Amino acid sequence: MLYFLPIEPLESRYTAQMLKWVVRELDEGEWDYQVIMPDEEEHSIAQGQFLDIYGTISWKARQIDKVSRLFNEGKVRPWDVFLIGDLWFPGIEAIPYMATLSGIPVTIWGWHYAGCADPNDFVQPCCNLGLYEAEKSWLKLADGVFVGSLYHKNIMYEAFGDTGLVFATGLVWDYEDVRLSVPLTPVDERPKRIIFPHRCAPEKNPEAFYRAAEFFADKGWDFIITSSRKGTPKDLGFKTSKYWRVLTGLSKQEYYDILSTCRVFFSSAYQETFGYALHEAVTFNVTPVCPKRLSYQEVLPSPYLYENDIGCIRKVEHYVEKPFPAPLSVTKNYHRSAKTALDIIKGYIP
Length: 350
Known about the structure:
Layout: E1 2-5, H1 14-28, E2 33-35, H2 53-72, E3 81-84, H3 94-102, E4 107-111, H4 124-141, E5 144-147, H5 150-160, E6 166-168, H6 175-179, E7 193-196, H7 207-215, E8 222-227, E9 245-248, H8 252-259, E10 264-266, H9 276-283, E11 287-291, H10 296-299, E12 305-306, H11 309-321, H12 329-332, H13 337-348
């Protein structure tokens, strides 16, 4: 039996897609599985994961509560698999604790996104409180960890040393499912629109986007920020500007409808281990302009990478006037990565 503990599935984020894509692979792989989620009347959560710090802890606590009942009822059997949607999971230690004291060997696998290994991650203040050691222990409890990129794998090894098996499979992604969600307009027929698709938070460096929007103010181009309600320019002390517009609270489909009309995807992030937003942009033939750092160097060819503000401005201007989408192989390399992860797990089950 495989027990899947997903991240809170929200339609505005990648997490609802992740649940769908993992479950599809479990079905097609003929796994015997159970999805561990809170009861339906307890599903309410605002923004998911650590964008809603209280809700996510409550969600995970209710997942572990259900796992404890499975152990108590004798339903967990030797070599059952626990697959965790995000291994930054307070309470993960309860699974091997119960398994060991019950004499039932199990295996733990899961995806890892960010955390103490990344100096620009927004959980860094927590790491200084001792959660560095906690995260390291969570990773050691896992029999295998799936990460978004070799860059991500390397910073984990640098921060934690040998924590066990780490596989750079890419995060859960399905290129074809995303591609079919919107009919594409030829890039030359699109408005001169530039999109910043990250939350407005320090680790995503939105200030670089604001500067670019102001620099091109006389061009009449359309600069769009798509942001969660808890992450807008105002939250960082920036006043509403005539140089850009902010779209908040978009569903995933609404976001795709906007993204597919853009010419340029702009990122200035200090923290990015896989880049869901990048892969979505490439899927919709939006030309990426990204910093020459992080996982971007691993994923994108050099023509789409800039080293400084001057290079950034030049690339934005060039690609707005002459869009040149990145090769689709950039994102197809990670297509159906959930199947890749499950195939790896299958190879380690006794």
